[in-house]
Amino acid sequence: MDKVIVLASGGLDSTTVIYSLIAQGIRVAPLFFDYGQHCVEKEWETLHKVLPPHSVDKPVRVDISDIFQFSTSRLIREPNLWEEQVSDSDMYIPYRTLMFFSAASAFAQTLRIQSVYSGFINSNHAKELDCSSAFFNELGEFSEDIGPVRFELPLREMNKAEVARMAETLSVPIGTTYSCQIYSDIPCGACPNCVERIAALEEAELI
Questions:
Q1: End-to-end Cα separation, the chain, in angstroms
Q2: What ranges do the domains of the chain cover?
Q3: CA–CA dist 33, 7 (Å, integer)
Q4: Which helix (H) or strand (E) holds 108?
Q5: What does the pLDDT read at residue 193?
Q6: In sequence order, what are the beta bridge partners of 3?
Q7: Continuous segment of H or E residues that includes residue 28
Q8: Alpha carbons 174 and 164: distance in angstroms, whole number
Q9: Model pLDDT for residues 67-107, shown as the tens digit of each residue
Q10: Residues 6+ apart with CB under 8 A from 107
């Protein structure tokens, strides 16, 4: 059975990629990054809950939190929505995605694994340059020039509602996945990720 690395967070998108790969007979090695996000333990716990019991390795957790130790991003510093107003720009983290792919490709090559998968989609609210359509479109070409590891983004052309429908078909535990950007315990329902998720589940007629 072929094995691939999947950037996994316990969110809907990456979990859907994992279930899709397993359905294709591909073994998954989940790679989780602790970049100092305030919800890191919630994400780590959720990842273990959503992983299927077969065709998947034990998740590997990599700590890169020191890089963002001075960040004022609200993904790092948990806000109090009762007292503070948070905008998309307040959650900006520079080069996070690029760092994920760079570290994952190095990790994959040490294990002689040739593919790194991610559940990233073209998000309308992402502010980072390395979350843009242009970045994702050039990522595959970039990886071909620097080594044997290939980056795969199977959901790149899909919207969140399409991902939700795909997840239902694959029996992904959608209700257990977690992707809130503001709170580290329960979804806030107001951050861009929560708003996008709720709208997608409504469009897909799953709620």
A1: 36
A2: 3-203
A3: 8
A4: helix 96-110
A5: 86
A6: 27
A7: strand 27-34
A8: 8
A9: 999 998 888 988 776 777 777 778 788 888 889 998 999 99
A10: 5, 31, 60, 62
